Amino acid sequence: MVKKAFKIICNDIKILKEILRKRTKGKIKTIKEILKYMKKYEINLEDYLSFQFYNMKEEEVATFFTYHMNDKFIDECNDKSKKYIFNNKELFDTIFNDYLGRKWIATENITYKEFENFVKRQEFIFYKKLDGSRGIGAKKINVKKYNNTRELYNYVKELDKGIIEEHIIAHKDINKICDSGLSTFRVLTLNKDGECKILECVFMIANGNIVNCEATGGGLTACVNLETGVVETDAVDINRNFYITHPLSGEPIKGFQVPYWNEVIKLVNEIYNKIPGINYIGWDIAITDNGPIVIEGNASWPSHRIWQVPYLGEKRGKKREFEEKIYEKKGINVD
Predict the structure, then answer these.
(1) Each residue of 253-271: b (16+ CB within 10 Å) or e?
(2) Cα torsion at 310, 315, 317, 318 (round to 10°)?
């Protein structure tokens, strides 16, 4: 607990230093503004930095769905005692096996014979830490780089407990944009009175040879229109640079039609309520030439930033739109 608190404090200090480096209003004025927004708009330091509130008017800041709003909503929707199901890769893959579209195996007790059969005819395999998040510890492993299967087996057994999955290749249209990593889609679902409410969809686009295609991992982020499945924003990176076309391929991003969009909708409607008590989930969906498959589900932190940062060029958040979707049947005034 002490170690975790120390880590949080160190991270906050780092973020504050970065904010003050970018400041346009003076140190004291900036700190006073941050404290005001923390109380009034339930932000945290990372919100202030990521959403670039230092360059906004207060009325623009008020349009954002922020950290503590998101945190409260997660607590309201998701049973804390069941979140571990989504944090444990082996358990998650076991429960959602029918929707994964790929073979997988746990590394802890795997025998050499089982491993040999699994990697047979595989060019790449993908390793994930058992409790990893944001792609931390994940590895795309080139099978052919090892002299023999025994050498690869010994390497895998030295890694932290985790799972190994077959390598996934994205749909050919998605790979035209970037084929050096796996681009995925974050689809946010809410179990609302027993029905699936799709709140947002974000295209998380690979940008080079990276594991985590979310902007925090080096990828790009763009929002998808829920009615049409068409990307409706330019893409944005972690530094809040915007891209009309992909920086590596030159392919246009806004206007891209997501393949198998109807099948994506059908898939999340099949899985949104598999774990009773977990009602708000950010599903990471990959789309192959054969259709959509589940990569993982995020119940502890579906994220509130990735579906708002593509609109930063307009200096507006999506708090009103998001809350209207959440409270649609409750008649709550979202002003």
Answers:
(1) bbebebbbbeebbebbeeb
(2) -80
* Positions of E strands within 176-215: 184-192, 195-205
Residue 187 in contact with residue 295, Cβ under 8 Å? no
First vs last Cα of the chain: how many Å apart? 38
Give the number of other Cβ atoms within 10 Å of residue 242's Cβ.
16
Residue 220: exposure state from Cβ atoms within 10 A (0-12, 13-18, ≥19): buried
Q: What are 108-115's contacts with CB under 8 Å, separation 24+?
A: 108/161, 110/156, 110/157, 110/164, 112/149, 112/150, 112/153, 115/149, 115/152, 115/153, 115/156
Give the pLDDT confidence of 279-312 residue by residue, as tens digits: 999 999 999 999 999 999 999 999 999 999 999 9
Q: How far apart are CA 46 and CA 20, in angstroms?
A: 13
Task: Give CA 200 to chain center in angstroms.
Answer: 12
- Write down the pTM of the prediction: 0.91
pLDDT digits (tens, 9 = 90+) for 119-170: 998 999 999 988 876 667 788 899 999 999 999 999 999 999 999 999 999 9
Q: What angle do CA 180, 237, 259 make, to 5 degrees?
A: 55
Q: Which domains does the chain have, with CATH numbers?
A: 2-62 (no CATH), 81-91+170-326 (3.30.470.20), 103-166 (3.30.1490)
Find out whether 199 and 220 touch, Cβ atoms under 8 Å.
Answer: no
Helix (H, G, I), strand (E, B) or coil at 196: strand
Which of 214, 209, 212, 92 is CA-nearest to residue 142? 209
Place of tokens 């979140």: 83
- SS3 call for 186: strand
Per DSSP, the chain holds a count of helices (H) and strands (E) of 12, 11
